[in-house]
Amino acid sequence: MTNYKVGQRVVITKKLYGHSFEIGQVVKLTFYDISNNEWEAEDGNDYCYMREDEFSDAGILSSSLDKDLAEKDETLIALEEQDRVVDYLSATLSKELEKQKQMRIDAAL
């Protein structure tokens, strides 16, 4: 019997049986092999099998990480929007400066 469930985030606390995750890393449980009493977990790049004595519930840490990622996504979207605005203003200003330059040239002739 296990106290964990598929989809749950856990924090790695030990490396006893050869998994490749780092101590302190948060991973997601993806499959429970009841016959071997092992969990498959993944970090987005890799997956490993572990036993329950190698991890613990990430609980608040997981919620905090999800919140941090959401805030970073919002910040990235805002920065990308600012980049588009700067590009537009730069192009508009370049056109306006070119017009003024041409008007000065025309006036000098």
How would you sum up this structure, described in words?
This protein is an alpha+beta fold and 109 residues long. It has 2 domains: 9-57, SH3 type barrels; 72-109. It is built from 1 helix and 5 strands; from the N terminus they run βββββα. The chain has one helix spanning 59-108, and strands at residues 9-12, 26-33, 38-42, 47-50, 55-57. The model has no long low-confidence stretch (mean pLDDT 86).
Give the mean pLDDT. Answer: 86
Helix content: 40-55%
* CATH topology tier name of the largest domain: SH3 type barrels
Alpha-beta classification: alpha+beta
Q: Low-confidence parts lasting 5 or more residues at pLDDT below 50?
A: none
- Largest sheet entry: 5 strands, antiparallel
CATH architecture call of the largest domain: Roll
Span between termini: 91 Å
Q: Total strand count, please?
A: 5
What is the strand content? 15-25%
Number of helices: 1
Radius of gyration: 27 Å
Element-level helix/strand string:
EEEEEH
Shape: rod-shaped
How would you write the strand order of the largest sheet? 4-3-2-1-5
